[in-house]
Design brief:
heterodimer; A: alpha/beta; 8-stranded mixed sheet; 4-stranded antiparallel sheet; 12 strands; globular; B: alpha/beta; Rossmann fold; 13 helices; about 25% strand
């Protein structure tokens, strides 16, 4: 928080609700705070329904009906982009903040060649003729490691595999020199070797352009290998956020601890069984009173069931929303063979 | 390999040797068959009683087809399948029926595996009725017992699949397998569609149930990290072939095939993140080869960074590196 000038995007108390009936509201995102620093990779991790995708969509203001942004601020370049007119927002979307989605198949128009789509993306924001656009298209294809760009531009999306399409999609997101790239589960539907290739391509893009990236995933392995800072979400709330190593080695929140303990490792654990978190994630239309994690938490006390814990600082750059943060060390707990 | 299978160890509950499954390649207006593509190509395996065998490979490598052929949903083209020491070809229709009730399958897509208009009770009851348990009281007893085993409250019985979360549905699917007291469970990516916090629950549950019911399990996955916890033996499958087959520990400590090494490197993990290891997976970009147009030599040669002239032109044989470690690569031990 100290070096304010480095923060490129700051989200303050973001709330996004969905109408689900005449009087009913599902609070998909309820008070999310985080900041993205220039040139860093922020990983948002959470289970399905924890509000991580909605958070990303709220930043770009593309939440579909019946959802609406109920409050909060998203500060980008000193301006709250939740309050600016839609027309101005359009010039930010894709241009300064761009996004890639989970499914690379539906993200493309099947009737247009890759080249036409890349050039359209470029020309829609900076009309400059096809020659310049083509040059830019080749530049971004090269950025994601596609060397035979000329050929690729003439082909249609269906001629490529899912992994290759996702690569092209990253290229398309990069064509307007954005400042921030939001990747919403970019590898979830892909196989394991393709996943590694895509992450490799993303980190290569990051290194070459110095772009700031928000990656949303449910895979602890992916965030820990790719991101600099990690931000954990549960039931629409921010649970814990900190730089990567701090979070992985000394997590404070019982939910983070539980997640880390339950991840299957490549190394052999001494215990045959994984330590799992009991119970199920809460039903978002009926979130329990108090701390949303309390019903599944082995350390929960009376206070947890009554009062919602606020996000507070527990260490340098380390925020945690828990009444009773744990003093936990991963190295002491994981018994490796 | 083949020799080992022929001896037919007594504890093998399910085995197959040189299994081949071909799909026709059709062309033209009248779908004329112009050739065959090998989807499962010469697979031999042996599932020991009470043990877990994991098949690991990318999507499209033929692992699901292998399960379907073993279960008899699809007919094999060639090779033998033995259940409890008896060849499938020699079984009568009735014996086959018994075998299929003893092998139960868990699919990845839980919503698709449960009938949307049937309550959980109906879904669990149906296999019992089909297997000739007429007494409703007895059925109720079995269902309640199994439901407790998978950690669901009896109130779920009256609900419908869409009212349950993914994790709860996966439990129902597992419960439905267990009601008919199977000997073998085929699990096709049972946890890859589940959330992180639930994956561990389901892995643990499968392991508990395996101990309790003395089940043998054939587990299909694409992630080597998931398999580590649960498998006794691991088979690495690529392009319809088994490229490496060894006890679990051996695979992690002493992987021989370049593809296995790629899979180990590609599996994301926290410890790699702590070491700031990148995603350098040492693989030529590309996909699985087209089965209709297979490479001349080693199936992996199109993506292998160690491939040389010989790999491109000759098919490698299955060789034993140690007593129970098979690998199919010319360069085993060198790389």
């Amino acid at each position: 928080m100290e070096d304010k000038e480095n923060v490129i995007l700051q989200v303050k108390d973001l709330r996004t609700y969905f109408k689900s009936g005449p009087q009913k509201v599902v609070k998909a995102v309820e008070g999310v705070n985080f900041s993205l620093k220039q040139g860093r990779v922020l990983g948002i991790i959470g289970e399905s329904g924890s509000g991580k995708s909605v958070t990303a969509k709220s930043i770009l203001r593309i939440v579909d009906e019946p959802g609406y942004i109920a409050g909060g601020e998203v500060i980008f370049k000193g301006e709250d982009i939740l309050k600016i007119p839609e027309k101005k927002m359009r010039s930010i979307r894709g241009n300064e903040i761009s996004m890639i989605f989970q499914d690379p198949t539906t993200s493309f128009n099947p009737y247009m060649t890759i080249g036409a789509q890349l050039m359209e993306a470029y020309n829609s924001h900076t009309p400059s003729g096809s020659e310049k656009a083509k040059k830019e298209a080749l530049r971004v294809l090269k950025l994601v490691g596609i060397s035979n760009g000329e050929e690729v531009l003439k082909k249609f999306p269906c001629e490529f595999s899912a992994g290759f399409r996702q690569r092209i999609f990253i290229a398309m997101a990069m064509i307007l020199y954005p400042d921030i790239l939001i990747a919403d589960e970019p590898t979830t539907s892909l196989g394991i070797t393709i996943q590694a290739e895509i992450i490799e391509a993303l980190s290569e893009v990051q290194k070459q352009t110095g772009i700031s990236i928000i990656i949303i995933t449910h895979d602890f392995g992916v965030v820990s290998q790719f991101s600099d800072d990690i931000f954990v979400m549960y039931a629409g709330r921010c649970v814990e956020s900190s730089p990567k190593k701090e979070l992985l080695l000394k997590p404070k929140h019982p939910y983070t601890v539980g997640l880390i303990r339950s991840v299957p490792l490549l190394e052999a654990r001494k215990t045959k069984r994984l330590k799992s978190i009991p119970g199920f994630p809460p039903d978002m239309s009926n979130v329990p009173q108090g701390c949303p994690f309390a019903p599944r938490c082995e350390y929960a006390q009376e206070k947890c069931r009554q009062e919602v814990p606020q996000l507070r600082e527990v260490g340098k750059d380390h925020m945690c929303a828990c009444h009773f943060p744990l003093d936990y060390d991963v190295n002491e707990d994981t018994e490796l063979e | 390999m083949a020799v080992e299978i022929n001896e037919k160890k007594e504890d093998a509950v399910l085995s197959c040797s040189d299994l081949l499954k071909q799909y026709p390649i059709k062309k033209g207006l009248f779908h004329k068959v112009v050739g065959q593509k090998n989807i499962v190509d010469g697979v031999s395996l042996e599932l020991e009683r009470g043990k877990t065998l994991a098949i690991v490979g990318e999507s499209g490598c033929g692992k699901t087809v292998l399960l379907r052929v073993l279960l008899g949903i699809e007919n094999k083209t060639d090779g033998t399948i033995c259940f409890n020491g008896k060849s499938l070809d020699k079984m009568s229709a009735q014996e086959k029926h018994v075998m299929q009730s003893k092998i139960q399958m868990i699919f990845q897509d839980t919503l698709g595996s449960l009938h949307p208009r049937m309550s959980i009770r109906e879904s669990l009851e149906e296999p019992l009725i089909l297997n000739g348990i007429q007494d409703p009281k007895e059925r109720e007893k079995i269902i309640l017992n199994v439901l407790e085993q998978v950690g669901l409250a009896p109130m779920f019985l009256e609900r419908y699949p869409h009212q349950l979360s993914g994790g709860q549905r996966q439990r129902v699917v597992i419960a439905r397998c267990l009601v008919v007291t199977p000997e073998i469970i085929f699990a096709d990516e049972p946890i890859s569609a589940l959330d992180v916090s639930l994956q561990a629950q389901v892995i643990n549950m499968l392991m508990d149930l395996q101990e309790e019911y003395h089940l043998s399990m054939l587990l299909v996955a694409h992630d080597l990290a998931v398999v580590r916890q649960i498998a006794d033996k691991i088979m690495i499958m690529y392009f319809g072939k088994i490229v490496e087959y060894a006890p679990s520990k051996e695979i992690y400590k002493n992987a021989q095939h370049p593809y296995t090494k790629v899979l180990l490197k590609a599996a994301p993990s926290i410890s790699k993140g702590l070491e700031d290891a990148g995603f350098d997976i040492a693989l030529k970009p590309g996909d699985l080869p087209d089965p209709a147009n297979p490479p001349k030599g080693c199936p992996f040669c199109t993506r292998c960074i160690y491939a040389d002239e010989r790999c491109m032109n000759e098919k490698p044989e299955q060789t034993m590196v140690s007593e129970n470690h098979m690998v199919m690569c010319f360069k085993a031990g060198e790389v």
